Amino acid sequence: MPENKLKPDQWINAYGDALYSYTLARINDTGIAEDLVQETFLSAWKARDSYKGEASEKSWLFTICKNKIIDHYRKKARDIVQPMAETSATDQFFDSEEHWTVEDKPTDWAMDYASKMDNKEFYKILNGCKKKLQEIQQAVFSMKYMEDLDAAEICKALGITSSNYWVLIHRAKLQLRTCLEKNWINLK
Fold first, then answer.
1. d(Cα 29, Cα 106) in Å, to the nearest integer?
2. Is the entire prediction scored with pTM above 0.70?
């Protein structure tokens, strides 16, 4: 018998909101986030007899949810992987020698990172900025910085090359930086 006993009748009340928030931060689509949380509960219900109790119920559910998110990206990869254009809007940041242009050189974000109100506001704006990324860029960014997967895992899951991965992550970071500076940093 598992040391940590499952309580499926309490899952929605105990973990529903947390799983939804976790998923929404990574997917940026309320409908898909809701579906993935439902799929998490359904998969957990189906696998309840194989639960060994080695992890807490909460950790077990979050692991299932994380895998559902990765599966979502994997299934979408065929649709969202687009050939990268030779040039991009982000290429304007660099000169012919691949150095930052004077006007686009990163600035120091002098701010108090500990302020809770700023953090809440920051994440709201970050999510808005992430929605402006191409879907494949959102997937790569979320898998790298929110799911903490390494480049090889991301490339395998999405079926992309290493060089394509680096272009996608680089452009996503540049676009996020520009959006954050426009909508948050320079408004302070």
1. 30
2. no
pLDDT of residue 90: 52
44: domain CATH number? 1.10.1740.10
Residues 6+ apart with CB under 8 A from 72: 27, 32, 36
Rounded to the nearest 10°, the torsion over CA 12, 22, 112, 92 is -150
CB 176 within 8 A of CB 129: yes
Type of residue numbered 100:
W
Which tens digit of pLDDT belongs to each residue from 18-30?
999 999 988 888 9
Two structure tokens written together for 163: 């060089």
Domains: count for the chain: 2
Q: Please count the CA atoms within 13 angstroms of the CA of 142 that sit on its side-chain side.
A: 28
Judge whether 147 lies within some domain: yes
